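User: Fold this; tokens only.

Assistant: Input:
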Amino acid sequence: MKRPPVIVLDNGASTIKLGITTAPKDVRLVPNAIVRSKGDKATYFGHELAACRDFATLSYRLPFERGYLVDWDAQKAIWDGVFSDQVLNVDTAETALLLTEPYFNLPNIQEVYDQFVFEEYEFQSYLCAPPAALVPHAPLFGQPAPACTLVVDAGFSFTHVVPLLDGAVVWRAVRRIDVGGKLLTNHLKALVSFRQWNMMDETHVMNDVKERCCYVAADFAADLEACRDARRRGAIVQEYVLPDFSRNRHGRVRAPDDARADGEQILYMANERFSVPEVLFRPDHIGLQQAGLGEAVAQAVAALPADLHGLFWANIGLVGGSTRFPGFAARL
């Protein structure tokens, strides 16, 4: 019997990463949200957001809340577009599905996953697994993957430290930090709104600022001191030119030799560049009484058999959007 094509769908709380085995190099990224644009006076479902022209003051309806899928109507509307001829162009009844689910997913939510996949879309078969469980099958650690690996998954809602032994998650050693990409963006919005421009309604713009400007400091105290010193401040400060959607101009970091044009609004990014990602390593900076990422990794390894500690320390892999901050891997 011929095997059906398999759709691989990494159903993140912010972004869906998907592809199909018949076209393994054609990987798509789709926002996992229903977005209302006040400027365009239009509503965009998932992949349709690429057609948006005015990203100012967007309103988001997210299927995920606090890391768990709770709005199934919104998720179905987004998945309908993903499976349509506008993205994958597949007949779900003739395919299988590999789907990711949140860590420590609740049993009642898992049951809804099963009903959704088989009753709404009639997939022939499907496998649901947490993201880290699929890492041994990816080239992150090479092939074959080591028997002992530790995955740091810095996602949209949380950051998880997940040990894998022979490809299986060691659940008793998994550690979670209640800091993710969403919290970091909101923290940056609050800082900028207090110090410069009111950006509390500009989630899309501030997420772009975070991705373009922020980095993880190797020495937080030294960089903070440099921002206070006028002579050294210039090495850290960046100027982000806010977008002008009426002229179809997107936001950008201004180069040192780039002349300032009339009417440009500038966001000056100084210690915000490194103080926002620092929350991953020091949650107490914003009042969260939790272990930072370095301590969470140490706690996860300590919960494993002592004779395997060295193997886990030697094989730490990074996945998730927040791990892409410059300096993240070196700091960890």
